[in-house]
Amino acid sequence: MLPTTIPLDYYLILSAVLFVIGTVGVVTRRNAIIIFMSLELMLNAVNLTMVAFSSFLGDVAGQMFVFFIMAVAAAEAAVGLAIVLALYRGKQTVYVDEVNIMKW
Fold first, then answer.
1. pLDDT per position in the chain (104 positions), as tens?
2. CA-to-CA distance for 36 and 64, rounded, in angstroms?
3. DSSP alpha helices (H): ranges in the chain?
4. Is 14 within a domain?
5. Which residues in 28-59 are b (16+ Cβ under 10 Å) and which e?
6. In this structure, what CATH number is given to the domain that contains residue 64?
7. Rounded CA gap, 98 and 100, in Å?
8. How far apart are alpha carbons 77 and 15 in whole angstroms?
9. Cβ atoms of residues 54 and 42 within 8 Å
């Protein structure tokens, strides 16, 4: 029995669907936590594409680059959560429509 491999097209379609879901989440939602989650989903869709192409081309450099992107994404998630907590403590809401810090 031969091992089955998943074609590259399937990975790219899945990555495009995840990226579109993340984009829709960023554009339509007003909750800051959901916006950050949607941004992480978009970043993971790009990571999936990079790993798929790296595996398809037989090069490990793309997979190592994804490892560093994931480390930066973890730091970004921690900073984003800290910003959301600071906004909630100051304004008692996490909805971006109600937060007007940049106004006088």
1. 545 688 999 999 999 999 999 999 999 988 888 998 999 999 999 999 999 999 898 888 888 999 998 998 889 889 988 988 888 888 888 787 777 766 65
2. 24
3. 8-28, 32-57, 61-91
4. yes
5. eeebbeebbbbbbbbbbbebbbbbbbbbeeee
6. 1.10.287.3510
7. 6
8. 20
9. no
Task: Please state, in angstroms and as integers, the Cα–Cα distance from residue 22 to each residue in 1, 6, 83, 87, 104, following that order.
Answer: 39, 24, 20, 23, 32
- Which residue segment(s) compose the domain that 86 sits in? 8-91
pTM for the model stands at: 0.82
Amino acid at 22: G
Say how many domains are in the chain.
1
